[in-house]
Amino acid sequence: MTDIVSAEDIERTVGVQRHATEHWGRAVSAEQTVYILHSQQCKDTTPDLRDCPYSLALDDGIQPADWTEDVAVPLRINDPDGLAWLVPGSTPPSGHSHDADGGES
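Above: the chain sequence. Below: its structure as tokens.
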């Protein structure tokens, strides 16, 4: 089950500021945990973020080989045949570019 983390802690852990429409995440290798920074739109419209499709996909697991650990990435949901799981996106949202430390470049 997905746990709720404070807004300040999740932004610090993921390493990016909250985006208006994109979900971002980071796989933290030392904790063997994936953190989701929900979009502002999601935060504004989803009373319990554990009910967000991204949280539900994370509850179904990840494919570790798809992830680069300890790097902030935009998130996507892979949903072949109705079996959803969370995957890192291939490109950052427009206007955002992040280095391996999560800083904007």
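DSSP finds three helices and four strands in the chain.
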